[in-house]
Amino acid sequence: FKAGANASPDASGYAIMIPPPNVTGVLHMGHAFNNTLQDILIRWHRMRGFDTLWQPGTDHAGIATQMVVERELAKNNEPSRSELGRDAFLEKVWKWKEQSGGTIINQLKRLGASCDFSRTAFTMAGAHGDTKTGHENSANFHDAVLKTFVDFYDKGLIYKGKRLVNWDPHFETAISDLEVENIEVDGHMWHFKYPLADGETYTYIEKDEDNNITLSEERDYISIATTRPETMLGDGAVAVFTKDERYAPIVGKSVHLPLCNRTIPVIVDEYPDPDFGSGAVKITGAHDFNDYQVAKRNSIPMYSLLDTKGAMRSDDHEDNFVPLKYQGMDRFEARKAVVADIDALGLMIKIENKKVMQPFGDRSKVVIEPALTDQWFVDTAKIVQPAIDAVKDGTTKILPEGDKKVYFHWLENIEPWCISRQLWWGHQIPVYYFGDNNSDYVVAESKDLALNEAIKKTKNSNLTLDDLVQEEDVLDTWFSSWIWPISVLDGIRNPENSDFKYYYPTNDLVTAPEILFFWVARMIIAGYEYADAKPFKNVYLTGLVRDSQGRKMSKSLGNSPEPLGLIEKFGADGVRVGLLLSASAGNDILFDEELCNQGKAFTN
Q1: CB-neighbour burial class of residue 82 (10 A; exposed 0-12, middle 13-18, buried 19+)
Q2: Hey, which residues does 492 pair with through a beta bridge?
Q3: What's the mean pLDDT when you consider all of the chain?
Q4: Running DSSP on this structure, what letter comes out for residue 518?
Q5: Exposed, middle or buried, 484 (CB in 10 Å: 0-12/13-18/19+)?
Q6: CA distances from 600 to 33, 142, 580, 594, 604 (A)
Q7: Is 72 exposed, middle or buried (0-12, 13-18, 19+ CB in 10 A)?
Q8: Within a 10 A sphere around the Cβ of 446, how many other Cβ atoms?
Q9: What average pLDDT does the segment 335-341 reach?
Q10: Can you tell me the mean pLDDT for 324-344?
Q11: pTM, rounded to two decimals
Q12: 456-502 pLDDT per residue, tens
């Protein structure tokens, strides 16, 4: 299985990079199917005399791994992460990784995957003093990641800024869109009155389709509707549609924000839907993704209401606008209190029962909050065009073809990529702060290099290593895996090495459609940025493995068989042929155990 084994003397290279499974992972039916397809491609080329490389490895899976280890500590009544401190906790994670981190690789071997296991890589090899680095090319994956960050920063492609991100109050970190599950739940829509300031009134008029007046009344308020009443404490404005005649008389005037000692303006914007609710929208820029855009466009202030655990802020910073009564309350307790207090003021219009889409952390299972925080970002819009062009002109093919629409939609509307995570397990961001209250910083691959940069920047030769404090945040897991095809061949640190020159670009990528944007597209972006070339020629997106009734497999439904159990019963090839018997290109696989029996009979 080693790269180059049995190759013809004049062999062409053929390479597949395994989508690295999480180091926490165990083999499931999707892995079994995906890796069977890769194995067929590899074995077929190997048999035809190609010099084949099937590159295996695992991903450090920041939040997932940290969660597993924290659970282990709790189960064994050991000190918690915060009690241990960063260094001692990371020692525990590395120890866990050494004991359990190779599980899925061993299971891939049991499946019969013919990877070159001598090259097994790990996306955090070389980090935190790790010396068990595996194959020499992946030995310093960590160095390659830091080099990438510094390089992007030096090119002006990485910056620090306040933006709205998905915030997980359980793990106390920003998470990516991929880690958010939107689930429809029973909720409410509360309709409130916001009184006009200075005793102002206006004539509110509603008309039908024929322009006949159906309602005319004098009002001293504007009606708003919300599914999250507690966020009203952070409102910066009320917005109405630009051509909404009902509210034209009060545009530019102010309303009293109930429960708060301040007034906010009534503004116009394209965002409000005049046919939904009252047509007036409260704008809470620090706690809603749509409101954030409205606030930015109209220079409306944004007020952060929550602390990192999802409770109403109780700090004494001057930007804390949470009224004293609600400070320290859990967000859902604050919701009840706000509703009761609005009602007591006589400002409640009505409460509707309503189904609402609520975002949950896929691992924490708690409600995610949009939060305005300081984060590090990649300005992806500046480097996305080659990845769009590569798929448009067929340099890289995406199969099935229909998935190209999703690819283009994402890339043509790309947002800055939040790459910082408030975790301890991961590649610690190579930014070093110094000066009064750590108000200044430099970016460098090591602390020694950072000291040189800081001395140059300040012209202060008295600075020492003790004056530097490294950024506590770590990088998003995708920031290391987007350079996976390049880094496992050491193409970031040593682009002239023979493996990189021979096996890159790789040939085929077999992966799941749900990470087309989060991983595949980003690898193509990085490929053009770092190697001026596509990372692979073909992307094949598999279907989902479902049960025979077409349902998604899950432990709760009891319809998700363990591949290892099936292998014990039918043999590895019985299971693999069984999966293939039910597979048609790009479609979901309806799996039935009887197929494994057929697969066993066929292979025999």
Answers
A1: exposed
A2: none
A3: 92
A4: I
A5: buried
A6: 16, 43, 12, 10, 6
A7: middle
A8: 13
A9: 97
A10: 97
A11: 0.87
A12: 999 999 999 999 999 999 999 999 999 999 999 999 999 999 999 99
Cis peptide before 400 (omega within 30 of 0): yes
What region does 14 belong to: left with phi over 0, alpha with psi -120 to 50, or beta? beta
CA 349, 297, 419 angle in degrees (round to 5)? 105
Q: Which ranges in 227-373 belong to alpha helices (H)?
A: 289-298, 331-344
Residue at 450: amino acid letter = A
Structure tokens at 174: 């920003």
Closest CA relative to residue 148, chosen from 498, 475, 384, 388: 475
* 21 φ/ψ angles, rounded to the nearest 5 degrees: -70, 155
| Contact by Cβ (8 Å): 78, 91 | no
For 511-542, the pLDDT digits (tens) are 988 899 989 999 999 999 988 889 999 999 99
Q: Rounded to an integer, what distance in angstroms lies between the CA atom of residue 374 and that of residue 561? A: 43
pLDDT tens digits for 354-370?
999 999 998 899 999 99
Residues forming beta bridges with residue 497, ordered by sequence position: none
Could you give the angle at which helices 572-581 and 563-570 cross, rounded to 10 degrees?
110
**With contact defined as beta carbons under 8 Å apart, do 329 and 312 qualify?**
yes
List the structure tokens of 303: 């007020």
Q: Per-residue pLDDT for 554 more than 80?
A: no
The helix/strand/coil state of 233 is helix
Residue with tokens 């991929």: 178
Statement: residue 285 has pLDDT above 50: yes
Least confident of 284-288, 416-420, 541-545: 541-545
CB atoms within 10 A of CB 585: 10
3-state secondary structure of 290: helix
Cβ–Cβ under 8 Å, residues 51 and 15: no
Task: Measure the CA–CA gap between 549 and 560, rounded to whole angstroms.
Answer: 12
Confirm if 548 and 590 have CB atoms less than 8 A apart: yes
| Degrees, nearest 5: CA angle 163-357-227 | 75
Buried b (16+ CB within 10 A) or exposed e, 504-518: bbbbbbbbbbebbbb
Query: Do the bridges between strand 545-547 and strand 589-591 make them parallel or antiparallel, or are there none, so unpaired?
Result: parallel
As a whole number of angstroms, the distance between CA 434 and CA 441 comes to: 6
Tokens matching residue 178: 């991929």
In angstroms, the CA 371 to CA 169 distance is 10
pLDDT for residue 335: 97
Helix (H) or strand (E) holding 480: helix 477-481
Give burial (CB, 10 Å; 0-12/13-18/19+) of 83. exposed
